[in-house]
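Aspartate 1-decarboxylase
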Amino acid sequence: MQIQVLKSKIHRVKVTGADLNYIGSITIDESLLEASNIIEGEKVSIVNINNGERFDTYAIKGEKNSGTITLNGPAARKVQKDDIIIIISYASMDFEKAKTFKPWVIFPNENDNSLT
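Predicted structure tokens:
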């Protein structure tokens, strides 16, 4: 049996921009992608702490060490600059493997989205 489990989580980062006219997705600082083991194009769920919005999109790579967290396209309507969000990805795996799987969870600095 396969189940879905938490694979990666970027816990509480600040939205740095919202670009309604971009084609879609969320732009995430490359250093945050690497630390959380999220790859470009991967489906991610977004939880907005400020307004309770929850939605799915896909990740695109932003400039490394820039702190960039930008919601693009229609998702830009669900956030405002400086909102705090959680970015989550899931993986399907065998039930027995899931019992011992350890997700990648990172806690960036909320002020500048850095890892230090």
